[in-house]
Structure of non-specific serine/threonine protein kinase:
Amino acid sequence: MVRNVAELLPELEEQDFYLLSGVEQGMRFSEWVQREKLPKFASLTDEEVTYRLERCLKRGLIEKKTIQYEGYTLQFEGYDTLALRALVERDTISEFGSPLGVGKESDVYEVRSYKPLALKYHREGYTNFREVHKERDYTSDNEHVSWMYTARKAAEREHDILEDLYPDVAVPQPIDQNRHAIVMEKMDGVELSRTKLEADQVLGVLDLLISEIARAYETGYVHADMSEYNVFLDEDGVTIFDWPQAVPTDHENADEFLRRDLQNAVGYFRRKYPQQVSDELDSDAVAAEIASGSFETIRE
Ligand SMILES: Nc1ncnc2c1ncn2[C@@H]1O[C@H](COP(=O)(O)OP(=O)(O)OP(=O)(O)O)[C@@H](O)[C@H]1O
Ligand SMILES: [Mg+2]
């Protein structure tokens, strides 16, 4: 698990950030940035680099290796620090709060500015990176910084998609993005998986969810990871989140993903509420209606 770096920010100094962004810049060329190159990348004197390396190592923001040459690389904590600091500098975030969720591929925290927000650090590539990292000889180049690249691309993608969907589709309002982090509106309510609906609410909620899936399709996207864990429910209705893997509707497999999303949504409701969701409700037929633009409602 990646440590929360928020409490570190106050004790870090301007030059610590220079050092971290120097390492980040060097990592565009190789995973392990040579010690000698750091003064240039970080715009710091040699003595200053030595002092800052010590401080950043001690805080677990960077890692050092000495095989073949002395080199440094960012830890995810160091990358988080750079992203968080950028978001604070431009006033997107003014207060840091508690964890909202730890997903397979992200860490989500409550943050604040003028209103409650959610900060999602993308971690795609993290597990892979750790596994590969253990076995690989440290000098091999390229593909190396793939965890940084993969996580940043996922964040950019999720932010772009939210911008396309909001406000026509019920998704969290996107606020800002930096490196592998996105900031969005904090959703009210709870995960659909943790709700127990009254019998007379079941079809209404399922219909709301399918309507949002249909609206997303009209706007140009299929979520492609639809489940009761990626939907929030409150008094105002449903919110669909977690969009980095979404595919555009002109993608060759879009309609297949749409069918699968509907199978997941309808399947979940059917398993949980067999009395309310009849066998007549055919998710593939609903998917076909959505794809052809003729979907209206599942209710009579
Ligand atoms: N905008 C938000 N407001 C409140 N809570 C949120 C928000 N975004 C995410 N969360 C919480 O964080 C958790 C993880 O978020 P999300 O599903 O986007 O990440 P993930 O790592 O991609 O998930 P997965 O485990 O599905 O791969 C969610 O289940 C939810 O509880
Ligand atoms: Mg999720």
Notes: Residues 6-185 form a domain with the Phosphorylase Kinase; domain 1 fold (CATH 3.30.200.20). The CA atoms of residues 61 and 78 lie 4 Å apart. Residues 103, 229-230, 242 surround magnesium ion (ligand 2) (CB under 6 Å). The longest strand covers residues 95-102.
